[in-house]
Every structure is written in structure tokens, then in C-alpha cells.
Amino acid sequence: MPSQDQASPAPLPDHIAHSQLVLTIATGAMSFLATLLVLLRLVSRTVNKMGVKSDDWFGVGALVCSYSVLITTVVDAVVSRAGYHIAQYDDATLGTYLQIVLTNSVLYTTSISLAKGSILLFYRRIF
Which top-level group of life is the source organism from (predicted)? Predict the structure, then answer.
């Protein structure tokens, strides 16, 4: 039983935290921009008859991982209601949150690695 000096944590609100909403919107906007850029790149390769090479496929892979990051960000905001003080979470919600964050981190790292690989392969194509 907690002592009288310790206040019990406030219950977790039912709505998405503002900071998590901003993060989700920013992730969605950047995913949309990345989609446009990858599509323009593929269209330009097709129109100029240069052929789609491995650097383009790495870019498509990075885009797919980017969508996965967006999905896990939305799931994080909706399911585990991320963005509040850690003391407000119960153990089950905190466990779910940490699983989603781990998945998000792995997908983000994969997406960034594929994007960097695409850039390196593009340099190899140029030089």
C-alpha cells in the first residue's frame, strides 16, 4: 500500500497525446513526400529508357520500410497511447508500448540503411 506522501499517478487519458499526434502527422507527410520522389525517379528511368537498376530497387525497399515505420507510429499512438509520463502506464500497456517501439526502431534502421545503400549504388552507377 502506498504511503500517504506518495500521490497515485493520474490515469492514462483516452485521447492521443499532442506530441504523438505531431509525430504521426510528420511521419505521414515525409512518407508521402518519399513516395512522390521514388515514383518520379522510377518514371524518369522509364521515360529516359535507362532501366531500373539495383539502386532504384533499394529505394523502393526503403519506401516499403518507411510505410512500416508509419504504421507502427500510428499503432503506437492508438494502441499504447504514447506520449504521456511513464508513471501513468500500467505494466501491460508499457509492455505493449516497448514492443511497438522496438519494432519501429528496427524498421527505421532498415529503412535508413536501404536509403543509404541506394545512394551508394547510385554513386557507383554515376562513377
Answer: Eukaryota
Question: Does residue 40 lie in a domain region?
Answer: yes
In a domain, residue 34? The reply is: yes
Extract the residue ranges of the chain whose pLDDT is less than 50: none
The beta-strand segments (E) located in 1-127 are: none
Amino acid 5: pLDDT: 57
**What is the structure's pLDDT at 90?**
85
Question: How many Å apart are CA 127 and CA 119, to the nearest integer?
Answer: 12
Locus of grid cell 533499394:
58
Residue 87 falls inside a structural domain: yes
Nearest to 100 by CA among 123, 70, 118, 80: 80
In single-letter form, the type of residue at position 66 comes to S
pLDDT, position 38: 95
